[in-house]
Amino acid sequence: MFGSIFRFEVNYHRRQFLFYILCSVFFLLTFLSTTSDNVSIGPTFSNVNINAPIAVISSLATLSILSLFGAVAFVANGVVRDYDLKTAELFLTTNVTKFEYLYGRFFGALLFSFGIYFAGLLGVVAGEFAPWLDQERIGEFSWGAYWFATWAIVLPTLFFMSCIFFCLATITRSMMSTYVAAIAFLMMTFVMGSFTEPETVDLVSKIEPFGLTALAEQTRYWTVFEKNALIPTMEGNFLINRALWLSIGLIFLGVAYRLFPFSVEKVTLGRNGKNKVQADEPAVPDTRVEFSLPQVTREFGLSANLAQYFSQTQLEFRNIVFSAPFIVLMLLGILNVLGSTAGSLDNIFGTPVYPTTGTFVMIINGTLALSLIGVLVYYAGEVMLKERAARFSEIVDSLPYPNWVMMMAKLSGLILVIISMLVVSALAAIGVQLYNGYYELEILVYIQGLLMFYQFPLYFMCVASIFFFVITRSRYITMFLIVLYTVSLIALPQMGFQHHLYRMNKPFMNYSTFTGYTHLIEPFLWYTLYWSLWGLLLMVIIHLFWPRGSEFTFKSSVAVARQRFTGSVGIAAAVVVMSLTATGGFIYYNTTVLNPYMSNLELEEKMANFEKTYKQYQYQRQPGIFSTYVEVDIFPEEREVFLKGHYEMVNDGALPIEELHFTRAPGVSITALEIPNSTLELED
Q1: How far apart (Å, rounded) are the C-alpha atoms in residues 671 and 169?
Q2: Does residue 77 register a pLDDT over 90?
Q3: Where are the domains of the chain?
Q4: Calculated CA dihedral for residues 587, 588, 590, 595, nearest 10 degrees
Q5: Which residues face 631 on adjacent strands?
Q6: Which distant-in-sequence residues (6+ apart) come within 8 Å of 154 by Cβ?
Q7: Is-contact 45 55, C-beta < 8 A?
Q8: What is the DSSP string of 466-522?
Q9: Of 152, 148, 127, 150, whose CA–CA distance to 137 is shortest?
Q10: ∠ CA(645), CA(647), CA(651), 5° rounding?
Q11: Quick one: which H or E segment has residue 625?
Q12: Is the pLDDT of residue 579 over 90?
């Protein structure tokens, strides 16, 4: 019977799309953190190989923290699900034993907690072989690093965490209570990590749940060579830490068995320990009351449509933010933000920094991106199929509202979900700032950097996701297209296709303490207008093919689209297309005609040709700079700097110099260059 329950639990979670979403998120997160400097998980190491054993182990160890909420979603669900679905009594009246029922559910769900970790591990492995990585920073592939991280850190951590939260779910019978306990567990861990005094590090390394402090203690004084070659060992405080928490996990697993109410009587028992049997109430005689129906005025104008829109938007938003998958994905993202912001203060390009708002905005946008995309991938199809999944779509579709009400409500719901995650992330970052004694919070920079400048591609992706569903009418094809679209944004520049006219993105918005975002706003607004017009064009198509009713064949959809393509819709589409053409032409003229456009591949080729041509002069004797004098006037508001000065250069060699070589930076013009008794031999 244990095997039957185990297989039942495995088959149940195998059919849940949350598992595949988390696997995709973990794979992409670790793959991008390995292959891109813009995404990071866990601590960063200076001057070590990308695939150094310590870097791999630290990334996978941090992944065990992110896996915590996945463990809650799978393991706690196994014991809470029957109570939520009111099916517990069916199982408790069979001949299954308590051991078989409880531990069959536990180990079946535990298997999927391990599964999402292995998806992340595959992301790290795949990232090591990405062709665009700097091969000089890639060392020898080390299976030992993956093996040590898996058996010594991650699997023990996932096991004892699953035991603890399985026990809590058994006692409380509430997923929300278990999530709250998980957050408290993490906060306790972060508090432990804040103790850096030598006299407390030894104790913390023994009791910190995830083993990161013990790992850092063992590798703290390793040289760069050792970090690139050695693998930690299971000894000292690290061994004590792992043994301690495995023991705690087994104790909680035993407590769950002891406290689990394996009987119908205990399940139906009240909180005060007594059965509450309600006495039969006397029947109430039927009464007849006559009344007049109130006179109501029916309204189908714009005000009624706006009221419908706001009401439906609120409903869409609440349905998402109070669902378990969203809570899991949001907590994963927030946890990553907390770890990245707190862990980055000691090492950004090898230099300690203040927790400034501009720095934190950059970190949040890098670390939260995958969680936001994960939410969008999962809920784009869910939002569109909500009414059909509940089997009352025909009723909703027959109600008197125009298409734009439901279209805009679902789009607004998705955008509000993204905004809510960004707001919570900003609050978490503010907490890190306050904790570190930094009080210049710059709320406006958070609003600009998180909600406006950086996230516009995600807002456009919300429109694209609805467009994908309306055209394909398939949840899974929509999810696949969103993932494919996201990957294309990363892959196209590697192939030389990076112009923002055909690759949805924004100009690089780098915050400056001197000038803020002001000098970058104009190009951002032009690209925002351009891609907003693309979004409007997609919304017109969405309106034409918006599904209402029960017939969804291609032929019927085209017929409905022809009916909806009225004169006003045609005029709106024409205006959008003309505006799009004009805006795109203006951008193309400025970025390609007036100014030279060069892709990364073309730039690399130019640099390679430069090196091939002039490397022969690498050791050519040239004058050395003896002294420098420069006057610098900086005007941040005007974005101008005036330099005035001179070099004093001398020939510090024993022989005369026959040739002088000058290199000027791109964009710099030389108005005059006079060298007495010399002739110009080459200029290119």
Answers
A1: 76
A2: no
A3: 2-267, 306-604
A4: 140
A5: 644
A6: 60, 61, 63, 64, 67, 117
A7: yes
A8: HHHHHHH--HHHHHHHHHHHHHHHHHHHHTT---TTTS--------BTTTBTHHHHH
A9: 127
A10: 170
A11: strand 624-635
A12: yes
Residue 639: left if φ>0, alpha if ψ -120 to 50, beta else—which one?
A: left
Structure tokens at 498: 């990076």
255 — phi, psi (to 5°)? -65, -40
Tokens of 464: 């694209």
Is it the case that residue 277 has pLDDT exceeding 60?
Answer: no
* CA pair distance 683, 308, nearest whole angstrom: 70
The amino acid at residue 114 is: F
Residues ≥6 apart with Cβ < 8 Å to 433: 355, 357, 360, 439, 441
Percentage of the residues of the chain whose pLDDT score is greater than 90: 10
Distance CA 655, CA 57 (A): 55
Q: Using CA atoms, how far apart are residues 102 and 82, in angstroms rounded to an integer?
A: 12
The model's pLDDT over 520-568, given as tens digits with 9 standing for 90+, comes to 788 888 888 998 999 999 999 998 888 877 766 778 888 888 888 888 8
Q: Residue 628: helix, strand or coil by DSSP?
A: strand
- Give the C-alpha separation, 39 to 115, whole Å: 22
Tokens of 456: 């516009």
> Which of these, 256, 254, 107, 251, lies nearest to 172 by C-alpha position?
256
Give the highest mean pLDDT range of 222-226, 342-346, 467-471.
467-471
55 token code pair: 């870097």
CB burial of 517-550 (b: ≥16 within 10 Å; e: otherwise) equals: beebbebbebbbebbbbbbbbbbbebbbbbbeee
Distant-in-sequence, close-in-space partners of 575: CB < 8 Å, separation ≥ 6: none
Burial of 269 (0-12, 13-18, 19+ CB in 10 A): middle
Q: Alpha-carbon distance 336 to 357, whole Å?
A: 17
User: What gap in Å lies between CA 451 and CA 517, rounded to an integer?
Assistant: 14
Report the alpha-carbon distance of residue 159 to residue 182 in Å, rounded. 14
Sign (positive or negative) of CA dihedral 299, 303, 305, 308: negative
The token pair at 610 is: 């430069």
Listed range (210-214, 390-394, 565-569) with the worst mean pLDDT: 390-394
Q: What is the pLDDT of residue 40?
A: 64
User: In the chain, helix, strand, coil percent, each to 5?
Assistant: 65, 5, 30
> For residue 274, what pLDDT band results from cuts at 50, 70 and 90?
very low
Banded model confidence at residue 667, pLDDT cuts 50, 70, 90: low
- Give the count of beta carbons closer than 10 Å to the beta carbon of residue 388: 14
Residue 395 reports pLDDT greater than 60: yes
The residue that leads in pLDDT, 668 or 107, is 107
CA distance 179 to 326: 12
Tell me how far apart the 2 most distant CA atoms of the chain are, in Å: 121
Give me the phi and psi of 24, to 5 degrees please: -65, -45
**pLDDT > 70: percent of the chain:** 85
